[in-house]
Design brief:
By secondary structure, the protein is mainly α. The protein contains twelve helices and no strands. InterPro entries: Aromatic_CoA_ox/epox, Ferritin-like, Ferritin-like_SF, PaaA_PaaC, PaaC.
């Protein structure tokens, strides 16, 4: 995957930055019968074959947190295919979304084994309160600058998370993280280049980049909150509060080069890890789940 040069002009990006994501539909009832929906011929990564077949309840819950974050973000990024400011960016964002789907599939497969559910069951047949994604990942695409701001924060957080999770005492989580961190390293570089390109481009692109960071920054705090589950997974899970400093330190040089200040303002109360979500998740899930729910038991 190729990335935009920092020396390119920002005119095209600024012009497309005004594009907003469309509204999504309505949520569905997860208690209705649905049969099994599967995609044939797609194999999971080797780490799930080599690792333990069933996680403990707490490990499964933790894997659900991480899998939901990746799947929701992948669904968001997929919208930009055919809508990005450059053809090259259609491909880049699509490939990032595919990376995230791969992470989500491995994590949800591992999480679902504890309750005898497949990754597809978890993706398509849960309603909003059963999801554990953090609010940052649920925020709308908005314009292109908003999407880049969300991706910049998310990729730096995920890189620090997977870098440490690769040393987890749980062999399966460690193997998933060791693979994911290599891909997320590209994601954060891609986002950093776009932050610079937009912030140092035209007056319009700079204003949109500042606005995007300001709108997304309130959701940063939730990423670093230590929920009670973390106390029960010492040596297995990564303590979120330990990620704040390295993630902030990683973003700081990019913000300085872009001549941007770290936003200040209100902090979102969050709650996604407990099933308390923003108003954006329900419509997103409705769009993602509609085909599986319209054709229960289908195989393709």
């Amino acid at each position: 995957m190729s990335t935009p040069s920092r020396t390119d002009t920002a005119t095209a990006a600024a012009a497309v930055a005004a594009t907003n994501a469309p509204d999504r539909g309505h949520d569905h009832n997860e208690n209705e019968g649905h049969g099994h929906v599967e995609v044939d011929g797609v194999l999971l990564s080797a780490e799930l074959v080599e690792g333990p077949s069933v996680a403990s309840h707490d490990v499964a819950e933790y894997a659900l947190w991480l899998g939901d974050d990746s799947l929701v973000l992948a669904q968001q990024l997929g919208w930009w295919i055919s809508r990005a400011p450059e053809l090259e960016e259609d491909i880049a964002l699509g490939n990032i979304a595919l990376d995230l789907i791969g992470h989500a599939r491995s994590l949800l497969h591992y999480a679902g084994a504890e309750s005898n559910r497949t990754e597809d069951d978890l993706a398509y047949w849960r309603t909003e309160p059963s999801w554990r994604s953090a609010h940052l990942f649920e925020q709308p695409n908005g314009d292109f600058a908003h999407t880049i701001a969300r991706q910049f924060i998310a990729a730096n957080y995920l890189f620090e998370l997977y870098s440490r999770l690769a040393d987890s005492a749980d062999a399966t989580l460690a193997a998933i993280a060791a693979k994911a961190v290599k891909e997320v390293d590209y994601h954060r570089d891609h986002a950093a280049q776009w932050v610079l390109r937009l912030a140092l481009g035209t007056e319009e692109s700079r204003a949109r980049m500042i606005c995007g960071l300001g709108d997304l920054w309130p959701f940063v705090d939730e990423l670093f909150v230590d929920e009670p589950l973390i106390d029960r997974l010492d040596g297995v899970a990564v303590r979120p509060s330990t990620l704040r400093a390295p993630a902030t330190d990683a973003m700081a040089p990019v913000l300085r080069e872009a001549e941007l200040n770290e936003p200040r303002g209100f902090i979102s109360s969050g709650g996604g890890r407990r099933g308390d979500h923003s108003e954006n998740l329900g419509p997103l899930l409705a769009e993602m789940q509609v085909l599986a729910r319209a054709h229960p038991g289908a195989s393709w």
